[in-house]
Design a protein that fits this description.
The complex is a heterodimer of chains A (287) and B (321).
Chain A (H helix, E strand, L loop, with lengths): L25 E5 L5 E6 L3 H19 L3 H17 L1 H12 L3 H21 L3 H5 L1 E2 L6 E9 L2 E5 L6 H12 L3 E5 L6 H11 L8 E4 L3 H10 L5 E3 L6 H11 L5 E3 L15 H4 L2 E9 L3
Parallel strand pairs in A: 5-6, 5-8, 6-7, 8-9
Antiparallel strand pairs in A: 1-2, 3-4, 4-10
Helix pairs in contact in A: 1-8, 2-4, 3-4, 4-6, 8-9
Chain B lengths: L3 E2 L15 H10 L5 H11 L6 H14 E4 L7 H12 L13 E4 L4 H8 L5 E5 L10 H13 L4 E5 L2 H5 L3 H15 L3 E5 L8 H13 L4 E3 L11 H18 L1 E2 L1 E3 L7 H15 L11 E3 L1 H15 L12
Classes of the chains: A alpha/beta (287), B alpha/beta (321).
Protein name (chain B): Deoxyribose-phosphate aldolase
InterPro entries (chain B): Aldolase_TIM, DeoC, DeoC/FbaB/LacD_aldolase
Catalytic activity (chain B): 2-deoxy-D-ribose 5-phosphate = D-glyceraldehyde 3-phosphate + acetaldehyde
Chain lengths: 287, 321
């Protein structure tokens, strides 16, 4: 007897839940051959607002965890991703139309990238902190602190690109709201499922699918967002207007890259340090 | 229809009812029962209205004017009450067009501090009295508590009813206690807290509402905020129906104050829709409807800022209280 297909409903990932868009909208996502793959939720500005609220609520708990514990959690994402590698390989092949070898390479690299950043969680402080010599009876110490809630426009690479921008942000204790790749949103939501089942507290990563041009300006001007990563913005005019909007509350901005980024390259630490503030403490000697 | 305030104890036409415990019980138990499913469905359906743009701006400003900014913690200090009073006068210091709240609500020993800060600004001082929040004290202690707050300058007294007596059916005892407290209030307005979370049924909420109105309360209030559930839409709706019916029968208007658990602008607007639809537009005024809240104000201010600037605001830009 023929079996009826059980199709997956792709929704948003906000605050550890998978809600539909508040607006009730969805849009058609095609595979590489132009056939209907699925409908994705089309997030509205109110979904973005809810996601920021969730990210802000999660920030206190996540940022006050020990770096060692955050490292374990990011590593755990890699473990769970490893367990579901076949699903990701299949999704990448369908959505991007790449060969099995290339899809496997991308999944491998994504898992390795998570492990690489997990290792940095309790080491980045030693790299960017310092004991400063001062002319007075004080210990003067500078240490990094997470920036806060970071909005991210994710690059097109549906798995590796997304992991490469999100992992460094959460590793250092920030929380984020990600606008997934508009063309390939489905893998991002599947990645959300991985995060939901890997000890990552709800709200640390929130994934929205939909129109970048529609949602990003609301995140850029949002007064409760502390930074914005424009890596996935391809339209230079939009990038400029987002930077202008972001200036209102002095958000940290990571500008859109010039040209293609090769995500397979080992990254430097700049994506970690972009979302760190420096706290300097003066402590009297002898007390 | 006249809209005089409930200034006399009892409502004249109801003198027979309040003459004895049995006649009062007969009246309260003779009130029509509340259809629980229907009431909840009606309250939920009133929460689905979409209020946008200019109507929303109006609703936000009205809601701010209706807030009884409340701090009722064991850890309250004079400094905190002064800060809260300043916030009541200037909720958004960056925007002079932002209206003041209706009142600040504090414990009786903080009334003098609040009064001193508020001066003649027009923001009223409400004090919770009568052994708030449990109400478990002797009557003379409750009356002394009330007089103490009034002498310190409270404009409004929020009293709690004796829920134990009410639930055991000793309605006249509750009635007489309210009348005594009202007398102790003098010129101060009296709000009667039922603690609906402890009343068990919607029928009891309707009975308590009538009891409070018969005893001459200026306001009937849902909860202390110390018991869950606090204010809920169905309970507030039943109380709004009671004040509407009371005005139809007596011509006297009584206010309603939901308190506790109203945290967002969205919730507040749902309540305003309910006030308009159930009681009528006459109640859309700080003299007749109040919100007992503390965190609600910041959300209202954030929404107000969002409407003025076109971008989402954040909690960093408003005082914590």
């Amino acid at each position: 007897m023929a079996r009826i297909d059980v199709k997956k409903t792709y929704k948003l990932y906000i605050g550890g839940q998978f809600p539909r868009s508040e607006s009730g909208r969805s849009y058609v996502v095609n595979d590489a051959k132009g056939n209907l793959m699925a409908n994705a939720a089309q997030a509205s500005r109110k979904d973005a607002r809810d996601a920021v609220t969730a990210a802000r609520a999660a920030f206190g708990g996540w940022s006050s965890r020990t770096a060692y514990n955050r490292s374990q959690v990011v590593y755990r994402i890699a473990e769970v991703l490893e367990g579901r590698r076949d699903q990701f390989v299949a999704e990448l092949r369908t959505s991007e139309g790449v060969t099995s070898a290339r899809a496997n390479a991308a999944v491998d690299a994504a898992i390795d990238r998570l492990v690489w950043y997990a290792g940095w969680a309790d080491k980045i402080t030693q790299v960017v902190s310092s004991a400063n010599p001062v002319a007075g009876p004080y210990f003067n110490i500078s240490t990094p602190e997470p920036t806060g809630v970071v909005a991210v426009v994710a690059p097109t690479g549906p798995l590796l690109g997304l992991v490469s921008v999100v992992a460094p942000i959460i590793t250092t204790g920030n929380t984020c709201v990600v606008i997934a790749s508009e063309a390939h949103p489905l893998t991002s939501i599947t990645l959300g499922e991985v995060m939901a089942t890997s000890d990552l507290p709800g709200g640390v990563v929130n994934v929205l699918t939909g129109s970048v041009a529609e949602i990003a300006p609301w995140l850029a001007s949002h007064m409760d967002v502390n930074g914005i990563d424009l890596t996935g913005v391809t339209d230079p005019e939009l990038a400029t207007s987002l930077e202008v909007a972001a200036a209102d509350n002095l958000k940290r901005v990571r500008r859109a890259p010039d040209g293609e980024v090769d995500w397979l390259q080992t990254p430097g630490t700049d994506r970690l340090t972009d979302w760190l503030e420096t706290k300097t403490v003066w402590h009297p000697i002898g007390i | 229809m006249t809209t005089t305030s409930a200034s006399t104890s009892g409502a004249g036409v109801f003198d027979d009812i309040t003459a004895s415990d049995s006649s009062l019980r007969r009246f309260l138990h003779g009130l029509p029962g509340v259809d629980q499913v229907g009431a909840e469905a009606r309250a939920a359906s009133l929460g689905t209205r979409s209020i946008k743009t200019t109507a929303k701006a109006f609703a936000i400003d009205l809601a701010i004017r209706m807030v009884d900014l409340t701090t009722l913690e064991g850890q309250d200090t004079h400094g905190k009450v002064r800060a809260l009073a300043s916030k009541a006068m200037h909720p958004d210091p960056a925007d002079p067009t932002c209206p003041m709240t209706a009142a600040v609500c504090v414990y009786p020993d903080m009334v003098a501090t609040a009064k001193q800060t508020l001066g003649s600004s027009g923001v009223k001082v409400a004090a919770v009295a009568t052994a708030f929040p449990s109400g478990r004290a002797a009557l003379d202690i409750k009356l002394a508590d009330t007089r103490d707050a009034v002498e310190a300058g409270a404009d409004e007294i929020d009293m709690v009813i004796d829920r134990g007596a009410f639930l055991s059916g000793r309605y006249l005892e509750v009635y007489e206690e309210i009348v005594a407290v009202k007398e102790a209030c003098g010129d101060a307005h009296l709000k009667i807290i039922f603690e609906t979370g402890e009343l068990q049924t919607y029928d009891n909420v309707r009975r308590a509402s009538w009891l409070g109105m018969l005893a001459g309360g200026h306001f009937i209030k849902t909860s202390t905020g110390k018991v869950q559930p606090a204010a809920t839409p169905p309970v507030t709706m039943i109380m709004l129906e009671a004040v509407r019916d009371f005005r139809e029968q007596t011509g006297q208007m009584v206010g309603v104050k939901p308190a506790g658990g109203i945290k967002t602008t969205k919730d507040a607007i749902k309540y305003l829709v309910m006030v308009n639809e159930v009681a009528g537009p006459d109640w859309l005024d700080p003299d007749w409807f109040r919100f007992g809240a503390s965190t609600l104000l910041n959300d209202l201010l954030m929404q107000r800022t969002k409407m003025a600037t076109g971008r989402y605001s954040g909690p960093d830009y408003f005082t914590l209280d």
